[in-house]
Amino acid sequence: MTYHKFHARPTETDGIKFASKKEAQYYSSLKLRVLAGDVVFFLRQVPFDLPGNIKYRCDFAEFLSDGSVHFVEVKGFNTPMGKLKIQQAEAIYPIKIKIV
């Protein structure tokens, strides 16, 4: 098994490969929230174009039953580059990204 430089353990759930156990666990909790009716559906790895031909991929976009949309980044450790990409995405697009 290979390990990430920040000690994240790649994990597979439902045949989907996740960068960390934490991200896989969040995915599982989202599936339960869909069953409960709180979340209508969700998307994974949502791309945002940033200046300099850079792509930022947000871990999840959650479409809630009240009509709102939440963007969620699952982080064990937030790097300066990760913080910058999130700040840029929030400045360019009318969104707020929640870090869990």
Question: If you had to describe this structure to a student in words, what would you say it looks like?
Answer:
This protein is α+β, with helices and mostly antiparallel strands. It has a single domain, classed as Trna Endonuclease, Chain: A, domain 1 (3-Layer(aba) Sandwich). Helix content is 29%, strand content 37%. The protein is built from 2 helices and 6 strands; from the N terminus they run ββαβββαβ. It has helices at 21-36, 80-92; strands at 11-13, 16-18, 39-50, 54-64, 69-73, 97-99. It has a 4-stranded mixed sheet with strand order 3-4-5-6. Strand 3 (39-50) and strand 4 (54-64) form a beta hairpin. The longest helix is centred in the first third of the chain and has 16 residues, at 21-36. It is globular.
Q: What ranges have pLDDT less than 50 throughout 5 or more consecutive residues?
A: none
- CATH uppermost class: Alpha Beta
Percent helix, as a range, is 25-40%
What's the average pLDDT? 93
SS class: alpha+beta
Distance between the termini: 25 Å
Characteristic key phrases:
single chain; globular
Give the structure's gist in a few sentences:
With 100 residues, the protein is α+β, with helices and mostly antiparallel strands. It is 29% helix and 37% strand.
SSE inventory with pairings:
Elements: E1 11-13, E2 16-18, H1 21-36, E3 39-50, E4 54-64, E5 69-73, H2 80-92, E6 97-99
Parallel strand pairs: 5-6
Antiparallel strand pairs: 1-2, 3-4, 4-5
